[in-house]
Design goal:
By secondary structure, the chain is mostly helical. Helices cover 75% and strands 2% of the residues. Strands 1-2 form a two-stranded antiparallel ribbon. Strand 1 and strand 2 form a beta hairpin. The protein starts with a helix and ends with a helix. The model has no long low-confidence stretch (mean pLDDT 88).
Length: 228
């Protein structure tokens, strides 16, 4: 990492991946439904419909809520950010605050309205995953790591063949993958050993993080780092 912008991207990406992983594991353990990616959701939806049992069809509504919520979140991010490349001047802080509010609302709805809770949490993940999709030829994904692991493996393979791969092209996806794993580990341990309202805590963390970034962006970071 040789620029301040790279450090912002690395830190922000790791924190977002950690948070998304915590949320996803929380819903997997509590409802059996993933909220941070669609591959498993769409596969599970097809399996439930093929099964056609009452239990499977009931669960299919949760999976459908997650899929629709995730897509809606991506639509909202596209409307608000309307920039697939990472540009630090965009309103990422306010958007992260919005994600935190969705997660807090999801925790409040989960006991009585699990389908709505799943939809809100998936919407939060959809917004997050679409905040920025590219940075310096790196495909950025912070709610799942399949693509990141593919990019990491490809970059390592090309470097082994002598190709000049920039260090950030390996470090960023590797660090985000590690952060995602640590988030899953943290969520699993916390839910197994405590009664902490995990989504409320994580949502509050997003709100705080969004506020901090909004202040830092306006008072500390040079303008050329935001737009360059």
């Amino acid at each position: 990492m040789n620029t301040r912008r790279d450090l912002y991207v690395l830190l922000g990406g790791c924190l977002l991946a950690f948070g998304a992983s915590v949320v996803n594991v929380a819903f997997l353990l509590r409802t059996g439904t993933s909220v941070s990616h669609l591959t498993g959701d769409v596969s599970r939806l097809a399996m439930d419909w093929a099964d056609a049992s009452d239990e499977a069809l009931t669960h299919s509504w949760q999976v459908l809520a997650a899929a629709l919520g995730f897509v809606l979140g991506a639509v909202l991010a596209g409307f608000v950010i309307h920039q697939p490349n990472l540009v630090l001047a965009r309103p990422y802080g306010r958007t992260v605050i919005f994600i935190g509010c969705l997660l807090v609302g999801s925790e409040m709805l989960r006991p009585g309205h699990p389908h709505l809770a799943i939809g809100l949490a998936a919407c939060a993940c959809g917004v997050q995953n679409a905040l920025a999709t590219r940075y310096r030829q790196i495909i950025l994904r912070t709610t799942h790591i399949t693509g990141l692991l593919t990019d990491l493996g490809t970059s390592l393979g090309m470097r082994m063949r002598g190709r000049a791969i920039p260090r950030h092209g390996i470090l960023v996806p590797a660090a985000i993958c590690v952060a995602f794993f640590l988030g899953a580990l943290t969520s699993g341990f916390t839910l197994a050993r405590t009664s902490v309202p995990l989504l409320t805590v994580v949502g509050a963390g997003y709100v705080l993080g969004g506020l901090v970034w909004s202040v830092v962006k306006r008072t500390i970071i040079p303008p050329e780092d935001l737009t360059g």
